[in-house]
Specification:
heterodimer, A: 81 residues, mainly alpha, Histone, subunit A, 3 helices, elongated, B: 121 residues, extended, acetylation (chain B), phosphoprotein (chain B), Histone-fold (chain B), DNA polymerase epsilon subunit 3 (chain B)
Chain lengths: 81, 121
């Protein structure tokens, strides 16, 4: 296994979210796959960033507030606010 | 995350919701690129463009790699199906299963799992 893993997130769930957008009529299978994979990368990123805050608090358990802190502090996560 | 790290229920649920928002936002962004290209179908390129737009450029390279692996896998599946068809339909032409030109950039694969879905919106 290298960096180019296949998606572990269920594609059906991702597809359901894509279909929820009223402006989207069709999405190729590849698009759904890339979205799923991107979401995995996103989850890795936000978890890692949040974990830094847990470490600061000397905790080994990620808490909700660690995520809140990460979202507030990092520009790319502004869309989550 | 490193070994020994736990995730509280609330944090897990928050991550899950964030992931959903990410998909919705990325979809909307990608769709803008599709519309700009006067296309009705969202393709992989649109999603990659969306990542750049969303300031996740660092995702683009690994995503392209994954896409290549995915394409090779799909091709393998297609070949397997082609062989199955040859054996099964020796007499009839199975026109409903159209085989796309593999050189197309916008490959719309048709598989048993119906993946292009028309959304009646």
């Amino acid at each position: 296994p290298g960096p180019a893993r296949l998606a572990r997130l269920p594609l059906a769930r991702v597809k359901a979210l894509v279909k929820a957008d009223p402006d989207v009529s069709l999405a190729s299978q590849e698009a759904v796959f890339v979205l799923a994979r991107a979401t995995e990368l996103f989850v890795e990123t936000i978890a890692k960033d949040a974990y830094m805050y847990a470490q600061q608090g000397k905790r080994k358990t990620l808490q909700r507030r660690d995520l809140d802190n990460a979202i507030e502090a990092i520009d790319e996560f502004a869309f989550l606010e | 995350l490193p070994d020994g790290v736990n995730i509280s229920k609330e944090a897990r649920s928050a991550i899950s919701r964030a992931a959903s928002v990410f998909v919705l936002y990325a979809t909307s962004c990608a769709n803008n690129f599709a519309m700009k290209g006067k296309r009705k179908t969202l393709n992989a390129g649109d999603v990659l463009s969306a990542m750049e737009e969303m300031e996740f450029q660092r995702f683009v390279a690994p995503l392209k790699e994954s896409l290549e692996v995915y394409r090779r896998e799909q091709k393998g599946k297609k070949e397997a199906r082609k062989d199955k068809d040859k054996k099964a339909d020796s007499d009839e032409q199975d026109k409903s299963r159209e085989e796309e030109n593999d050189d197309d950039d916008e490959r719309m694969e048709e598989e048993e799992q119906n993946d292009e879905e028309e959304v009646d919106n």
